[in-house]
Amino acid sequence: MSDQIGSDVPTFKQQEQAGWDTKAKYYDDHAGGITREAVQSLLAVADIKVGTKLLDVACGPGYVAGCAAKKGAVAIGVDFAPGMIIEAKKTFPDTEFREGDAEKLAFENGCFDVVVCAFGLLHLADPDMAIAEAYRVLKSGGRYIFTVWSLPEKHDFFRLVLNAIEAYGTLDVSLPEAPPIFRFSKPSECKNVLTAVGFTNIEVKELPLHWAPSAPEDMIHFLDKSSVRTAMLLEKQTPDALTRIHQSILDGAKQFKHGNTYRLDWPAVLTVARKPI
Q: Phi-psi bin for 29: left (phi > 0), alpha (psi -120 to 50), beta?
């Protein structure tokens, strides 16, 4: 998928990069609690040992690379958003982070034992190329691990938001061409794409993650501060429709109240595969 579709029209890749660069400083306060919850599951299947060479692709605030380094891995994190690299270096100053393109990794063939992409594939214009690049930089026998969010029917937050948009706004808006956001939420698609690249021993499982916001308003803040693609969709709604969508989300949040807080099922799909020896 081309990076340029016109001098005055930003591409999906450009909008994602700019969006995450701007929102990087807010990420830990909103989405961080959820994505951090998945880190240990990722590292468990990565089988980290002292000296394991790990690449964290689309590393965001650096959770995976930073935690892997603490376990003794030689970890590097790359992200296309400069703001994310700044945040990662602040949080994990002893881990290496650098700006980089997941679809064109600046590393030699076969130099990593593990490549991880935690919730990054859905932000890429060409995820197939990113998977092929992960395969290229892995050593023979190396592991590739990625996570994405589960389908909306399993996911309380996405279901709540998408139902609100369908009821009071529209999903039919003009946005940059982009891959389907829930493409890799389907185990069959994960297996088909990885097999086509050359990976074997493919396993897909669901991670039962949760989010516990303190108030319904946190859900609106999440959309504004920790999403890019959904935020773009909401920006295309009319002012009246957006007001109604927000109110629908606030009203719908009541069903998730548990005592003094809220609890939403936020499942993820974890996929692990090997590069043949």
A: alpha
Domain-located, residue 253: no
In the chain, beta strands by DSSP E: 53-57, 74-79, 96-99, 112-118, 138-149, 200-207, 210-211, 257-258, 261-262, 264-265, 268-274
78 is a domain residue: yes
The per-residue pLDDT for range 152-170, each reduced to its tens digit, is 999 999 999 999 999 999 9
Number of domains forming the structure of the chain: 1
Residue 147's beta-bridge partner residues?
118, 270
234 belongs to a structural domain: no
Place 6 in a pLDDT band, splitting at 50, 70 and 90.
Answer: very low
Q: Dump pLDDT digits (tens) for 61-103.
A: 999 999 999 999 999 999 999 999 999 999 999 999 999 999 9
Residue 51 lies in a domain: yes
User: Which range (8-12, 110-114, 228-232, 266-270) has the least confidence?
Assistant: 8-12
Q: What CATH number should be reported for the domain holding residue 54? A: 3.40.50.150
Q: Give whole-number Cα distances, 210 to 34, 108, 173, 213, 216, in Å.
A: 7, 38, 30, 10, 15
Residues 6+ apart with CB under 8 A from 232: 15, 19, 175
Supply 232's token pair: 């773009």
Q: What is the pTM (predicted TM-score) of this model?
A: 0.93
Domain of residue 193, residue span: 12-151+176-212+268-274
Query: If you ran DSSP here, which 8-state letter would residue 141 be given?
Result: E
Mean pLDDT on 121-128: 96
